[in-house]
Amino acid sequence: MAINFDVRPAEPKDVPRMAKVHVDTWRETYRELMTSAVLDDPALLSWREKFWTAALTDPKYAQNTAAVASHEGAVIGIAMSGPSLDDPDEPQQLYLLYVYAAFHGSGVGAALLDAVIDRTAPVALWVADPNPRAQAFYRKHEFVTDGAVRLEDDVRSVRMTRHDLAAKTH
């Protein structure tokens, strides 16, 4: 699927559209994994707006990198990374990457990944399990499961890691 899209750093003015993508893609992706009480909570959108406002304006998150993908003026994907939250051996962690299902396979996800992750440094991420589409996407980008598993809000996740890709090209 070939589409024209742009990826750029996220800005505070993007918060409402980022929050909408976050909520919509959760509903598309996690309907069978998360409870309807969470996904259909009328406060979910405002909760995500507060999350993104803090992520993009609070100095304590200054080390994070956030990006948005847009198509024809509409935000269609979001991503954010930052310092590892749980593994000192992985200097960076992909916190989230969401793209509307209508744009899966278009290259938007890969462009967002490249926009927020340093390809020369090890990185880790947590991905819902089961989530075969997302896990296949990360495997395509040379992530492997490392055996770590966690349960958060009744959602099982597995950790995937990727090590220095630059070393592989030399």
TrEMBL record:
Gene Ontology MF, one: acyltransferase activity
Stored SUPFAM superfamilies: Acyl-CoA N-acyltransferases (Nat)
Keyword S-adenosyl-L-methionine among UniProt keywords: no
Keywords from the named record: Acyltransferase, Transferase
InterPro entries recorded: Acyl_CoA_acyltransferase (IPR016181), Bact_Acetyltransf (IPR050832), GNAT_dom (IPR000182)
Source domain of life: Bacteria
Entry EC no(s): 2.3.-.-
Domain N-acetyltransferase: 5-170
Protein name: GNAT family N-acetyltransferase
